[in-house]
Write a structure and sequence with these properties.
The protein is built from seven helices and eight strands, in the order H-E-H-H-E-H-H-E-H-E-E-E-H-E-E. It is of the alpha/beta class. It comes from Ranitomeya imitator (mimic poison frog).
């Protein structure tokens, strides 16, 4: 618990505080929160009354959304099914009791492998869609070639068709959109600051942070982004491409910016 609190102060507290601040500045801005462990620590230990009122407003407006909603993204290989249900129930209970909402989608990008239990549990939990990433490389390559990264998954043969769930497999780039850019040797589509324990830097500037987007380099960023979107588009049948931009300081805390690009 102490390590979680330190991680929250070093990583998540500044993220959630600034996200709420920036969302309140413009109606068109949206943000998606994954999992509850760090959010609940921020909510209980950091957020003030004004911030909590703002979060309630943003959730009701649909500009702050929760996906998966469990305490964590549970491992699929060794976690018992009752523990999977327990941590999901606890997270969903907090969201419903606090905001009156329940998550509509899973975000299961980190667990290694994909068991039939998770899509079954998620379908029975009322999720509308299931998203995974870490599967066998050869299988993923074959699915890309055949444009079958999206499918309807019935995790249990014994259950009815109502327990099927639409599933999206992230492509070979996973949630890590290529970071290389021709004009810098630093990461382009990442925020790779090194967190400092136990307290973050007061000025918000972390060591080894990526170069910011500026008026001078935004054209190159845009061109790199569009090139990657077009590459990914060839692997899917739909006209919408999920394009993730990961903000990561370590494997302890990851937030995502996800764009849906229509072409």
């Amino acid at each position: 618990m102490l390590y979680s609190q330190e991680s929250m102060h070093a990583y998540a507290a500044n993220v959630y505080t600034t996200v709420v601040e920036e969302l309140m500045k413009a109606k068109y801005r949206k943000f998606i929160v994954v999992e509850q462990e760090f959010f609940r620590l921020w909510w209980d230990m950091v957020a003030g009354e004004v911030q909590k009122q703002q979060v309630h407003q943003l959730v009701q407006e649909g500009r702050l959304e929760f996906v998966i909603g469990g305490q964590v993204m549970h491992d699929e290989a060794v976690t018992a099914v009752d523990d999977q249900i327990l941590q999901l129930t606890e997270g969903h209970g907090f969201l419903y009791e606090t905001f009156g909402v329940r998550p509509q989608f899973s975000w299961h990008v980190d667990p290694f492998g994909a068991s039939a239990v998770s899509p079954t549990v998620f379908a029975m939990s009322g999720f509308n869609a299931h998203l995974i990433s870490r599967i066998d490389y050869d299988s993923k390559a074959a699915m890309q070639d055949s444009k079958s990264l999206q499918f309807v998954w019935r995790g249990s043969r014994s259950l009815s068709e109502k327990q099927e769930i639409f599933t999206h497999v992230m492509d070979q780039f996973r949630y890590c959109t290529p970071s290389y850019l021709p004009f810098t040797n630093r990461s382009g589509f990442y925020w790779n600051g090194v967190a400092l324990f136990p307290d973050p830097p007061k000025d918000g500037i972390y060591p080894n942070m990526s170069l910011p987007v500026t008026r001078e380099n935004i054209q190159q960023y845009a061109e790199a982004m569009m090139t990657n979107i077009k590459t990914r588009a060839a692997w899917f049948r739909s006209n919408d491409v999920l394009w993730p931009w990961v903000n990561t300081t370590s494997v302890l805390f990851i937030s995502f910016i996800v764009f849906y690009a229509s072409y």
